[in-house]
Amino acid sequence: MDSAAVLSKCGYRCDLCLAYGPNVARQDRRAELSDGWHAVFGFRIPPEKIVCDGCTSGNNPRLIDSGCPVRPCVVARGLPNCGHCSELVCDRVSQRIVDRKEVESRLGRKLSGKEYEIAVEPYESFERLDFIRKHTNENK
Q: Fewest Cβ atoms closer than 10 Å to its Cβ: which of 33, 40, 70, 116?
C-alpha cells in the first residue's frame, strides 16, 4: 500500500479524494467531483458544499457524510479503520464499499479514465481493508 495514503475509517483514500481539504487547497476540482459523482452515482452535491477534513481528523471534522455509520463504530472500538476489525465486512462498511466492476455493471458501460480517477478509485476500499486485515493478522 502507498505510504503516502491517508485512509478514512472505512478505507477510502482521502489523499486521492477531490473533496479532501488539503486537495481542495492545492487545486480546487470540486466542480469535477460534483459532476463525476452525478454521472457515476446519480447524486449531486454543489461544489461549494463539498469539503471534508477526513474522518480521522480530530473529534469534530467537517465530513461529506455526517450520517456515516462507519466512523462512530470504528471510533467506539478504538480502531484506526475497519481493516483492524474482526467483523470486516459488516453491514455498516458494506454500505460504503465501492467496486469498479459493480459500478460499470450498474451503469451498463465502462467508466472513462477520468470518471474512474475522480469518482471511483478513491472509494474502492475493500482490497485496502482486506490487505490491512491480513497484514495485521500476520503480525499477531
A: 116
| Helix 100-107 / helix 30-41 crossing angle, nearest 10 deg | 60
Question: In this predicted model, what pLDDT tens digit does every residue of 40-64 receive, in sequence order?
Answer: 999 999 999 999 999 888 778 899 8
- E strands present in the chain: none
Provide the CB-side half-sphere exposure for 132 (13 A, CA): 24
Q: Fill in the amino acid letter for 95.
A: Q
Identify the CA nearest to 96 among candidates 126, 73, 66, 75. Answer: 126
The single residue listed with the C-alpha cell 457515476 is 40
pLDDT of residue 65: 87
